[in-house]
Design goal:
alpha/beta, Rossmann fold, 8 helices, about 55% helix, binds adenosine-5'-triphosphate, binds magnesium ion
């Protein structure tokens, strides 16, 4: 039996990385082998691409199309080398950001053509279907308040975190539109709760959708 592909989406600081660990622990406790990964990254090639995308590693401005294709190159590598093999082994794959981040950031926030992005996404993931997308929904200001604590520990914000706040409003709004378009795949989770309460909401959503 093939596994399940679950993606975590949401604005900066909404708790994706925190909650992916919690869901993996819960699934493992149920005897389900899980594989957590992240985008961009998750493979050696993908992590090298992540460094370019997030930290201006090569020291020149990225064109919007180059940015898009780097994200989707990382995604194609991840699908072929990590996600598809794990699913075929029957594992459940939990991915921190995936195709909907492209639609929200490059599409709704940067204004690139959504239909084109959809086709490029589909090509990058080789038409692999997603089983569930958890959208961690959080007010933009609340997310940035949470991240301020992280900057004080680990240094400066990345390229996307430095975008103006209205960019991030368009990201959040774009995620809502994506969820409206695919209600069977998306579950919107209120991320403005305690870590335990968000984890409980996610677990309920996963049980209802997949177990
Ligand atoms: N429900 C919560 N309540 C309060 N703080 C939280 C909650 N969830 C996560 N945090 C804290 O907020 C910060 C951001 O969380 P996390 O890194 O999981 O978010 P993220 O969505 O992965 O962010 P990014 O988009 O930057 O990757 C962390 O310091 C985390 O400990
Ligand atoms: Mg994260």
């Amino acid at each position: 039996m093939t596994g399940k592909l679950i993606t975590f989406e949401g604005p900066e600081g909404s708790g994706k990385s925190t909650q992916i660990k919690r869901l993996a622990e819960e699934l493992e406790a149920q005897g389900i082998t899980t594989r957590c990964t992240r985008e961009p990254g998750g493979t050696a090639t993908g992590e090298a691409i992540r460094n370019i995308l997030q930290h201006d590693a090569v020291g020149e401005p990225l064109s919007e199309r180059a940015e898009l294709l780097l994200f989707t190159a990382s995604r194609a590598q991840l699908v072929d080398h990590v996600i598809s093999p794990a699913l075929e082994r029957g594992e459940w794959v939990l991915c921190d950001r995936f195709i909907d981040s492209t639609m929200a950031y490059q599409g709704f926030a940067r204004g690139m053509d959504l239909e084109t992005l959809g086709r490029i996404n589909d090509f990058a993931i080789d038409h692999r279907p997603l089983d569930l997308t958890l959208l961690l929904d959080l007010d933009i200001e609340r997310g940035f308040q949470r991240l301020e604590k992280r900057y004080s520990i680990s240094g400066s914000a990345d390229r996307f975190e430095r975008e103006a706040h209205d960019f991030h409003f368009r990201v959040r709004d774009g995620y809502h539109k994506l969820a409206e378009c695919s209600p069977e795949r998306f579950r919107i989770v209120d991320a403005d709760q305690s870590i335990d309460a968000v984890a409980a909401s996610i677990w309920t959503a996963v049980k209802e959708a997949l177990l």
